[in-house]
Amino acid sequence: MNEADRIFVAGHRGLVGSAVVRELERRGFRNLVLRTSAELDLRNQAAVAQFFEDTRPQYVLLAAAKVGGIYANSTYPADFIRDNLQIQTNVIESAWRAGASKLCFLGSSCIYPKLAPQPIREDSLLTGPLEPTNEWYAVAKIAGIKMCKAYRRQHGFNAIALMPTNLYGPGDNFDLQNSHVLPALIRRFHEAKLRGDAEVTVWGTGTPRREFLHVDDLAGAVVHLMRMYDREELVNVGCGSDVTIRELADLVSTVVGFKGRLVFDDSKPDGTPRKLLDVTRLTNLGWKPQIGLLEGVRATYEWFMANESASRC
Ligand SMILES: NC(=O)c1ccc[n+]([C@@H]2O[C@H](COP(=O)([O-])OP(=O)(O)OC[C@H]3O[C@@H](n4cnc5c(N)ncnc54)[C@H](OP(=O)(O)O)[C@@H]3O)[C@@H](O)[C@H]2O)c1
């Protein structure tokens, strides 16, 4: 991938896509092709085929997807499976037909079985039942991974598939109902601080362990692997360590400056006890993260405060 190559970043206004654009621009790539969903609905097969015919990008970074937390997944299962299958099928097929040199597909750690041994290795895929709350999304993502493999085998199309862990950072979704745990905690502690609340209640026991990667680190990994990785095996992208939800809540509350108490509501479900990706393959490919959790949460909180009215709150 050279600096003058034409690169289509699908989903460039999202958490991941915007970070990928920042990283590409920082490295001097200057021929980026970008479309909002209003300009190009990636669910529309004819429109996507025409777009690839017209623009013929050499590289495709697929960061467009219908994404959400447990509430959104369980309320809109049909939308999650349909939109994601349509977006990825249209983009992979059209990219290959239009002669793209390489495509990067992004899955998610929820593609792995609910009870996969920890840390989760790439070869755990399809070895057991999925977490039921987001299986619609996960099944679509698994189909995307298999499509990359199938197009590689049948057509020699250089499609790689990366599996990021939980991400956070500037541009995140801070909506309380549709967001992931880290941005939701930032917003709740921030609002509790402004109201002067005496306590904030966090769902569950606080004991489950989760891994968090700053999205700028993910973007660094994506560009690194686009440049040097050309194989069909999945690659997990994580930081290799996890924290308990209690540790995370303590850290967020400190960064936000909330002075009250944290209460854990253990009548609410905890979910999987631990979810940590094995990053041996990624490490062996010469990449490691740069941004620690404290530093990353601080920067994300600053971004949230500077963009509160514009962010998806
Ligand atoms: N967030 C995480 O923690 C996480 C973790 C692991 C993997 N991932 C993966 O990373 C990818 C991106 O996630 P994200 O968190 O960046 O999501 P996001 O912030 O919700 O952004 C998704 C982007 O997809 C675009 N999009 C959605 N539907 C579209 C459509 N029909 N046509 C065209 N564009 C459409 C949106 O474009 P507009 O803004 O123009 O509407 C939006 O910019 C996904 O594949 C996800 O599975 C995310």
Task: Give an overview in words.
The chain is an alpha/beta fold and 313 residues long. It has a six-stranded parallel β-sheet with strand order 2-1-3-4-5-10, with helices on both faces. Strands 11-8-13 form a three-stranded mixed β-sheet. A two-stranded parallel sheet has the order 6-9. It has helices at 15-26, 45-55, 70-75, 77-97, 135-155, 181-195, 215-228, 245-256, 280-284, 293-306; strands at 7-10, 32-33, 59-62, 102-106, 159-164, 166-168, 199-203, 209-210, 212-214, 235-237, 243-244, 261-265, 274-275. It is 42% helix and 15% strand. The protein binds NADP nicotinamide-adenine-dinucleotide phosphate. NADP nicotinamide-adenine-dinucleotide phosphate binds at residues 11, 13-17, 36-37, 41-43, 63-67, 83, 87, 106, 108, 164, 166-167, 180.
